[in-house]
Amino acid sequence: MQVVILNSEEEIRAYASEHILARVETGALSVLGVATGSSPLPIYEGIEQRWTPAVGSLTAFALDEYVGLQPSHPESYHAVIDREVTQRLKLDPKKVHVPDGTAANVDEVCEHYEDLIKEAGGIDLQILGIGATGHIGFNEPTSSFASRTRIKTLTPQTRRDNARFFNSIEEVPRHCLTQGLGTIMEARELLLVAMGTTKAEAVAQAIEGPLTSMCPGSLLQMHPRATVILDRQAASHLKLVDYYNYVFNNRPTK
Ligand code: GLP
């Protein structure tokens, strides 16, 4: 795992978007896994600023969606992905996929979503944030490491954390559809971004804690190509900060 600790949101914007654009330009990235939440926003802004036609032809798969919110609801992940990803990156909406959280048959929707990812050739790079509970996607603590796209129940903590996007906590759905941890692990590359002290403990557990479903983010330790990009605050509970900085400053040029 590569841990990159940067000084500001501006540095994160530049580093993460250049990382992705470099992959797009070499043709190594044509299917992008996208995440909602505030953490990945600088990445989308950075790519928008450096947009190329190759970006516009990307296929995208969202990590998750609330159950029961109409796609027209401004906080449904359909709407968020449309605003922050499809429009900014000028993607073809037909090539941007978000699981349907309003469908009557949830299992069918989840199975179909897995099939769509397979048909697209798998996800080349998955962008991730991390929740204060250590969740990635909406895989809350004790999610199976082998899980596939399915319906999950949000923890009270996640509902409280996400209430800031709604008028009140009562409006935050209790259920979601999320790519499973097994699904996420099949992406060829993972790029997790976290900022701020509220993420420091989850980040420390994910990077330096034991591999445990109590912190789903710790599964990144098992991925052969995972990069975690942090600001100083999100990195503040890590023990090996000096080592990560040393590795980054002496990174191989080849
Ligand atoms: C949300 C999303 C996650 C996201 C996380 C953190 O609930 N489902 O994919 O990574 O919570 O969000 P934020 O970046 O806003 O802190």
Summarize the structure in words.
The chain is an alpha/beta fold. It has one domain (2-249): Rossmann fold (3-Layer(aba) Sandwich). Helices cover 34% and strands 16% of the residues. The chain has helices at residues 9-26, 41-49, 53-56, 77-87, 106-119, 156-162, 181-185, 200-208, 241-249, and strands at residues 2-6, 31-34, 59-62, 64-66, 96-97, 125-128, 150-153, 175-178, 190-194, 226-231. It has a seven-stranded parallel sheet. A three-stranded antiparallel sheet has the order 4-8-7. Strand 9, helix 8 and strand 10 form a beta-alpha-beta unit. Helix 1 crosses helix 2. It starts with a strand and ends in a 5-residue tail after the last helix. The model has no long low-confidence stretch (mean pLDDT 97). The site of 2-amino-2-deoxy-6-O-phosphono-alpha-D-glucopyranose (GLP) has 14 residues, from helix 6.
